[in-house]
Structures are given as C-alpha cells and as structure tokens.
Amino acid sequence: xxxxxxxxxxxxxxxxxxxxxxxxxxxxxxxxxxxxxxxxxxxxxxxxxxxxxxxxxxxxxxxxxxxxxxxxxxxxxxxxxxxxxxxxxxxxxxxxxxxxxxxxxxxxxxxxxxxxxxxxxxxxxxxxxxxxxxxxxxxxxxxxxxxxxxxxxxxxxxxxxxxxxxxxxxxxxx
Length: 174
What we know:
Elements: E1 2-4, H1 21-31, E2 38-40, E3 48-55, E4 58-67, E5 70-75, H2 79-95, E6 101-108, E7 114-121, H3 132-150, H4 152-164
Antiparallel strand pairs: 1-2, 3-4, 3-6, 4-5, 6-7
C-alpha cells in the first residue's frame, strides 16, 4: 500500500502491484515532487472501509467504500465506526489544528474492530455515498460563522445602522 503523507493528495492511496511497476511508477513520478514523503506499508485484509465526515468534532455523515476487498459504496456506517470516528476526532481536535472539517477513514478489521486508516481534508476527499447535502450545510454553517467572527466589527456596525433605519430590510441576518 502506498500513499502520500500529506492532505494535498498528489495521488490516491492504493496498492502498488509489482507487475504494474512501470506504469504505476510513471504516474507517481508525474504527480509527486522529489521532496514529497510517501508512506509505504504491507497491505492488510480488511472487512470494510468507511469514510466519515467530521464537522466541528462530530461525525455528520459517512459512507462505506470498500467491502471484503471490493469497491462497494453504501451510505452510512455502523454505530461502532461512528463512535470510533468521534473518539479519533476528539484527539485530533485537541492535538492538531487541521480545520473544522475533515474526513476520517475507518476500517473494520476481520475481527470487526474499528481502526484508523487515514485522515484527510474534506475538500480533497471523495464523498462516495455520504449525504452531500449534510456536508454542504455544515460547510456553509462553518463558513458563515467564520465570516461573522472575522467581520464582527462590520456586522455590529450594520446592526446599529439597521436599528436606526428599520426600513432597511434587505440586510442579511447578523
């Protein structure tokens, strides 16, 4: 298994087969830089793989994307996968500053135990069968909160103007 050690995803993590070395390496050579760090590990069999979208420390939607080694996309994830993703998010949010939204890939081992596979920024990750409307709503809410915090002084001033001029009804809500 080979993948870049960055959220910028110069290529998708995948199994690298010896018989495809020439074509696979030509692709990696085109998409990576000499300074890039690439993680290589022996592949392991997994029962299932899930992508869980995290917003402000909470799992908001998920999708299965692999089952028994085959591509299989279904909406949702088992409760134990979501609980595990929330535990991972608590550590990430405490220890790292990677932003308010990201994805956590969780695998179920052959013993049905959840394990962390990888963490990625949500805007570089495929969402498979996760509920995209939930993702968009969460991203919009976070962007609006950050916008209001950044422009707080302007929003406060607009509120003062609106209170003096109640006929101004086309201002967005503060």
